[in-house]
Amino acid sequence: MKVTKADLRLYAITDRQWLGGKDFYMVVEQVLKNGATFLQLREKNATHEQRVEEAKKIKQIAAKYHVPFVVNDDIWAAKEAGADGVHIGQSDMDYEQARKILGPDKIIGMTAKTVEQAVQAEKLGADYIGVGAVFHTTTKQDAKDMSRETLAAITKSVSIPIVAIGGITYDNMDSLKDTGVAGVSVISAIFAKEDEGAAAAALRKKADTLFGAA
Ligand code: TZP
Ligand code: MG
């Protein structure tokens, strides 16, 4: 298994818009040093070339902390930078293409919002699934939050590990405890904080107690 449940305990997704003048790579390093178990580079406004350069640098930092590192959407950037894999949305085409480009050993994560999509993602060969939005979020404009019942039904329907996403904070993550998720995936709960490292450490500690220390 390329991605374990423990890998998904605290899944950090980058978003530069929150960082102001801070050094992106220093912040990423703080987040990894303080307990993030998975990292996704998600920079929607970057060009492909910028993304490749960023991914190359982040790959080194993630490797130093033995944390799996994937690139959002840009399969070729993941390939060119030698990232551990890619995270893609809801398209079979994307999956087939990504697997062809990256090969059997790389991680491909997919997003799912329904049981049908989750089952399909597992069937295609996805290594893990991101499910959400589980709470209201303003970070992704088109994200709609789902019921706890839908989330639990999705986790029951597949055997690959699932990470919850969308509007998750230190205070609200308790309600995800018995939904079957392996962990939580966050953007603003880390990157919008003054001290990103401290935020990651607190989230990790709580995630370990909620989703089982490993
Ligand atoms: N996909 C579904 S919700 C979301 C994405 C990328 C945004 C999550 O951001 P935040 O700040 O953790 O709510
Ligand atoms: Mg996407």
From TrEMBL:
Cofactor(s) the protein needs: Mg(2+)
Pathway assigned to this chain's UniProt record: Cofactor biosynthesis; thiamine diphosphate biosynthesis; thiamine phosphate from 4-amino-2-methyl-5-diphosphomethylpyrimidine and 4-methyl-5-(2-phosphoethyl)-thiazole: step 1/1
GO terms of molecular function: thiamine-phosphate diphosphorylase activity
Binding site for 2-[(2R,5Z)-2-carboxy-4-methylthiazol-5(2H)-ylidene]ethyl phosphate: T137, T138, T139, G167, I187, S188
Keyword tags: Magnesium, Metal-binding, Thiamine biosynthesis, Transferase
Catalysed reaction, written as an equation: 2-(2-carboxy-4-methylthiazol-5-yl)ethyl phosphate + 4-amino-2-methyl-5-(diphosphooxymethyl)pyrimidine + 2 H(+) = thiamine phosphate + CO2 + diphosphate; 4-methyl-5-(2-phosphooxyethyl)-thiazole + 4-amino-2-methyl-5-(diphosphooxymethyl)pyrimidine + H(+) = thiamine phosphate + diphosphate; 2-[(2R,5Z)-2-carboxy-4-methylthiazol-5(2H)-ylidene]ethyl phosphate + 4-amino-2-methyl-5-(diphosphooxymethyl)pyrimidine + 2 H(+) = thiamine phosphate + CO2 + diphosphate
Enzyme Commission number, as recorded: 2.5.1.3
Positions that bind Mg(2+): D73, D92
Note accompanying the cofactor annotation: Binds 1 Mg(2+) ion per subunit.
Ranges where the Thiamine phosphate synthase/TenI domain occurs: 10-190
Record's keyword annotation contains Ligase: no
List of residues binding 4-amino-2-methyl-5-(diphosphooxymethyl)pyrimidine: Q40, L41, R42, E43, K44, N72, T111, K140
Similarity comment: family membership: Belongs to the thiamine-phosphate synthase family.
Function: Condenses 4-methyl-5-(beta-hydroxyethyl)thiazole monophosphate (THZ-P) and 2-methyl-4-amino-5-hydroxymethyl pyrimidine pyrophosphate (HMP-PP) to form thiamine monophosphate (TMP).
Name of the protein in its database record: Thiamine-phosphate synthase
Organism: Lachnospira intestinalis
Classification lineage: Bacteria, Bacillati, Bacillota, Clostridia, Lachnospirales
Full-length numbering of the shown residues: 1 to 214 of 418
